[in-house]
Request: fold
Amino acid sequence: MAPPRGDRKKGKPPGKPDLRPDRKQFKKHREEVKAEQAEDGEQPQQQQPGSAALLAAAADEADFPRGGRSLLSRDEVAEARAEAEADFEKEGRKGRGKTKRKGGESSGFDADDDLGTLFGGATTGKLPRFANRITLKNISPNMKVWGVVIEVNPKDVVVSLPGGMRGFVCSEDVCDIASHANLKDSEHSICAEVVHVGQLVPCIVLRVDDDKKEGKVNRRVWLSLRLSLLYKGLSLDALQEGMVLTAQVKSVEDHGYILHFGVSSFSGFMQKTDKENVKIESRQLIQCMVKAIDKTRAIVHLSSDKDLLSKSIIKDLKGLSIDHLIPGMMINARVHSVLENGVMLSFLTYFSGTVDIFNLSNSFPSGNWKDDYSKNKKVNARILFVDPLTRAVGLTLNEHLLRLKVPPINVKAGDIYEKSKVLRIDKRAGLFLEIPSPTRSPGFVSIHDVSDKDVKNLEKKFKEGSILRVRVLGVRHLEGVALGTVKESAFEGSVFTHADVKPGMLVRAKVVTVEPFGAIAQFPSGVKALCPLPHMSELGHVVKPPKKFKVGTELLFRVLGCKSKRITVTFKKSLVKSKLDVLASYADAKIGLVTHGWITKIEKHGCFVKFYNGVQGFVSRPELGLEAGTEAESVYHVGQVVKCRIVSVDPASRKINVSFLISPNRVIQADTAKLGSIVSGVVERLTPAAVVVSVNGFSKGTILNEHLADHHGQAAQLKNLLKPGHEFNQLLVLADIEGHNLVLSAKHSLINNANDIPSDMLQMHAGAVVHGYICNIIEAGCFVRFLGHLTGFSPKDKAVERPIEKLSNAFYVGQSVRSHILNVNAESARVKLSLQQSMCSSSDSSFVQGYFLLDQKISALKYSSHDWANTFGIGSLVKGEVGAIEEYGIILNFKDHPDVVGLIEHHQLSDSIVEVGSSVKGLVLDLSDGVVNLSLKPELVSSVRSGGTKKKRHRAAVADLVLHEEVSAIVETVKESYVILSIPEYNYAIGFAPLMDYNSQLLPHHHYDNGQRITVVVGSIPSSDPSGRLILLPKASVQDSGLFGSKRAKKKSDCKVGSLVEAEIIDIKPLELLLKFGVNLHGRIHITEVLEEDSDEHPFSKLKIGQMISARIVAEAEPSGKSGKNFKWELSIRPSKLKREFEDLTARKAELNHSVNGIVRAYVVKVDSEWVWLTVSRTVMAHLFILDSSSEPSELKEFQKRYSIGQAMKGRIIGVNREKRLLRLKALDNQGVPENIYETQQSVSPTAEHTKQGDIIGGRIQKILPSVGGLVIQIGPHLHGRVHYTEIVDSWVPEPLSRFHEGQFVKCKVLAVSRSSEGSLRVDLSLRPSNLCTDSGRSRLFDDSATYTPRIENIDDLCSGTEIEGYVKNVNSKGCFIMLSRMVDARIILSNLSDQYVENPQKDFPVGMLVHGRVLSTDPSSGKVEVSLRKSTGSKSETLYDISYSDLHVGDIVDGQVKRVESYGLFVTIQSSELVGLCHVSELSDEPVVDINSCYKAGDMVKAKILKIDEKRHRVSLGIKKSYFDSDMTDGTNDDDENETIPMDISHAPQMAGYHNRALVIPKAEPRASVLPLQVSLDESEDSDQEDDNKCQEIANGIEANAKKSEKRLKEKARKQRELEISALEERALQQDIPQTPDEFEKLVRSSPNSSFVWIKYMASLLDLADVEKARAVAERALKTIHIREEEEKLNVWVAYFNLENEYGSPREDAVKKIFQRALQYCDPKKVHLALLAMYERTEQYQLADELLDRMTKRFKTSCKIWLCRIQFSLKQGKDIEHIKYIVNRALLSLPQRKRIKFLTQTAILEFKCGVPEEGRSRFELILREYPKRTDLWSVYLDQETRLGDTEVIRALFDRATCLTLPPKKIRFLFKKYLEFEQSHGDVERVEHVKQKAREYVQTSLA
Reply:
């Protein structure tokens, strides 16, 4: 735990206070009396001037530096404040002590006076004169006090204590459970989470700081809110109902709150109520009352009801000690005696406490207040404080505190009230007043504050009832009393409270303490302020602050700021004596205002200046008034007071720009920095994106990083070397923003051509080439900026020679470019440009010249010494020492120039051999960036004359060179941006040729090899070149630039569009011919310009390289990315064009005559994974999708291999995009000519999909739908079709999808094409080979042995008896639906599924199973088909209804088969009929049946007796008791044990409980089938657990249950029967007319709005269309539409909604939870939980299921079913035995007594079935130990062991059971069961053994 503030001071460590009130009470009596009077405010006549501050400090007046942001640390501020306060108090005490001694014995106190001590004795013996009051002197550790929170800070809490004291609680002592939270990551303080301002809290004193330093005393009370300290030793026995406790919220649960009391022996729980107005959060401290105590579980139940809390009184209990008294408790007390300043009360028999005058019931005590408290008067009081050491107890009678409310305070410090009434005069204490605030408030004026002069007798000066003028000093929050003063001096002066302090005002204050961080000064009113260390002196640096400021000195200060209660002042003389206006807010800042400020920070780009009240401004470097090259730090210093002028202000953004230049008398000349002019600038500062310069000393300019150089790489180098103060000699003004903010450029190209760069549209002329820079790049082209805002645009095709994917790969923003103006549109103000290198190449060597000039500048900035540049001149011989031999060359070191490195590349060594350390002499080829390139080639070295210098040699070599002369050169070295050449003809002169130009910096440049000989043209000679180098230009670039323009113009004039020329084929590409014609002219012939469209041969088959052909020029060439060169002409040799005139060609130039359904011939350009791109003509492209290329899967798989570049193919046009001149094709051999194809007329529409019924097309499997959903096939780029499950293969095979996988290519046939109402296309497809027949034969997907079975497309094709096959579509407990084809479904009811009994249809007939059956009946009008899978012959209709109700009679014995087993009985199908009867559980056996599922199962054959027939209700009641068929057996009454609760088997959940009284004849209507993926049984009805338990009890009691309950039950059953009949009718109606479209479903839901079955069918149909959002919308409609009373119908929709979100939600877990929370508000929560659990288990989301079960066992902890679900789930998950035991123990604690036997029995059964049988045996043994005569339990136990089949164990168990002493009826049941077992599993000997044992038992019983 971090130490609290103040602990870091040196001195005595924290410990007990110096004054212990229980020791030496009478020693030095007179000194103690004086000290106590000084502490309590009872001081005699003479007063110190600052006495008002004492009361202000004692009251709730927060002194500096609390609140706001401080320049000091929190600990330092706390120490400074506390010490200054204590020091001032001490000074006051000294003064008062002296005065008191001078005054003599005026107090009149005798030796027994104990004012200020704590009295804790009994009520007998000597009584005290004064009531107990805690002060800073007598407060001690472990004391418990009551307080009110007045301040909550991030790191501490401030509490107001009794008597106006203040205590502090560190954040570590606020909470016991704070360590459980990650407080570091929390944005909020834990203090704010635990308590809030105005909250009453009990505290315990941790320590009282009592540090003495230099005679100063600092006493601070540190508290703790930890309940572990407050309730230490509290036990459960000490609690009593009605006791009020403070608790901390440990966690928030669903139903309430778990509370923590700081002790581990018990915890609390408080239930949530609807009356809660305030939200209760975790870790919050709350007050609560004990409602009940559960000592078994050690849980205390509590309530937070405010009325109960305020009225709860602690009762007297035996063993109650003082440790159990907690502040805030209310007690019954009686008045024992009246003291001088309060009342003494006795309470709880053995305790006594006192009430001081400030805590009486009347807040306005009059002079006769004692009359209100007669002896033995009974009162209610609350405990204020408890001191365990002295056993002193302080009480309060305040009416507000009795109601647990903080007394209201209607006054604030500093307020003046003119008419305050004196209520009582206490000559020792002071005056008690009534202050007339908006509501009258009690007030108190201490005797020290009644006058500025000495007052010897208060009663003479003031009278009760008199009116006074009072100024409020502070308040006592806990007592609700205002502290005031009536001194005349208090009403004088400008400052009395913090609110009176204004920034900039002059104040006089006294220095009270001096610390290293500054001085604390106190105003006459007691308000304190801080003078920070920098403001203690004009210079801003004080070495020894105590010597500068003497304590006690009164000085003149100026207020710097006042934020909250934090005041700062300054003693700087310049500020104190300033006569200028004060700038204290951004709103007061006006342009031109001159004021004083002080510098707080100095940066390279300017200074920050601060003004009053935190206002801050910035002074930019030009406004500092510095000379060039002067640094700001050398002129100004931090803390310096400066005079400033406001230049600009933005109050909204809190920004102020100021200037140190007070007189702005500069005049800006208009022509100094105009647009396009050349200016100079000095670097002011650098930003990440630009360089800010000062232009001509007064304007500011910005040079973007890209504008530092023409070359991209050099700009970054120069930026890294620039520093403030660097001067640019030449800068071009590109733009002028707001007069003084200039946009500048240092680009060499722009500066040299400044006069030619246009700034207006009128200066732009077509054909001109001008310099500019790229300002933006978009996908369509580049924007080129000139001067100002003049901008041109270069389209993408005009920006580069060859097509490029992204223009950003060819250009960058800010790049210098030369632009060829194509056209100028003055009306639209648009300029179209070309950036192609062929049109914009440089006509001179300016680009490389600029490069070398800037390179020299960069070297000069980087290296301080420039003599090395003269030493290593280009072409000179230098000598160096070999330092290293690397892979890239030889490294040389130069002795005189250690910072220069030489490099000799290996190819420059020639045959020279060098070694490390040897000296070599080489020729300088180049020098750049401190690296000198040298050559040792003999021809180069020998070219220098032995006695000549390098300059003479260079001049001799270059003397004869002529500008623009063409020479041959040898490549010596290739650099990144240029090539170093040597000219042999001119004595191997060294020259430099550029590798790039302005527009081609990012484009690939020509590749040169070392030693390669090339032809170059002299661009500039050293004598005329600024860089001093010989610049050479490659011949090709010179030709492009137009240096030989006259010749070229002549050549070009001979050619024009339409001319017929003779050309030579120089190359044959896959898609074009390259030609050469005329005089060095080139062209190309597109592959479509060779033959006519109707020709089938390859266009280039008869052409050869070198062949001469006649061709016609048809156009200027578009840039081609395939040719590798820039060709100027497009030609054609098509016969039709050779004969056609030029006019005919131009007339058809822009036409696009292609239309949908046309046939075109195209040539492959590109092949990718999905598309083939083709060219139809020079200007028209086409593309072919993979699935449009063929319908054969084998060809689709080899898609990319089937096409090669240049391959010809014919295709049909299925889409036209006229804007992009793009066609969509379909392979011609893929399909016949389509009919009635819609042709789009819009040029900007996407290509359309053309698919019609009967087409044979290719497809690709996109998705294999689950279950019987079929396949989703992609048949186009954005079009998909659906394959029905029956349309996959011809033959009926069990798993038709087994041979398919996603991504597989298939051949399919279009069966139907339809459009939905929204316009979406739905295509039904078939993969059956029989549908894919062609004229040449049958095409199969699989082998030819597959049998062909036609599909039934119409119900009319079916008749009774027809053999059919199909796939199970869905299944439930009443039957299933099967798919016969995509158009026809059939129904099979449960009885027709098999000749044998089907126990579990879902298991025996899973979805997707192939079945074979025959048609029973068809109904074409409704589309209903009934099918049977039974193999028995004969007409079922002839025998099925042979037996009717009229044929049955009561008492008949019939045979039957168990159809279904339920918890309440058996449903038995009567043989040879469809009649079903119910055998109630009470009619199963003469003995009680505990587990019906262990005795009977579906399919068992039974003999039954008809007990009752109800023909009207179609019901038959049966009985299968043995007594009905055995004449020897007599009827008997049930024993008492039979009435015991019968356990139920959890393995059969009571889903079918709603069918208890359903129709015995199964209706022909199919049960509501589940629809994937919803999977909800619409007829499922689950009763709540209470209904199940009641029903179980009724069954146990048999048919003799109460008649009224039976009647009510019958009505409920009748209601459910009606619901089932309605459901059956709904299903029949739905099956008769199956809706197919949303409109049909809409009609259906309008007719049956309350039918969940119809709604869910609607949702399922939308999911089949993959429209999830609409399915959700339908679910929402259903929930709103279904009547609120139809709870089961709503629940069905909710469950369907669960399944929908579980399948399609994103994320599904959150989606399901949202729906689940909504469902809880409308349906039975238990049913909703069980439904969600079933879905989780079905979808194998076991983690979520486990979490849900945890919540269910908490919410439904009294439900046996829920606990059994928990155990069953755990067993299925394979949990260990200990885990199961833990759940069982929890369940037994939660379940009622009547359910525990049932729970234990069912748990044992589950362990036998799903878990460890040994655990089940142990559980049965424990139950039978308690209930040994429960034959039902023995029966279940025996059944479970019989199921396991361990014969020895079973026989041993039977022997134990038959040895019990039981009634004859029960023992007979056990012997019969034993005999049946041996008859089935034993032999004759064992059977005889059982019979003999039975005889022996009978004989023994008779004896």
Q: What stands out?
A: The first strand starts at residue 144 and ends at 152. The longest helix spans residues 74-103. The two ends are 84 Å apart (CA to CA). The chain has 43 helices and 75 strands.
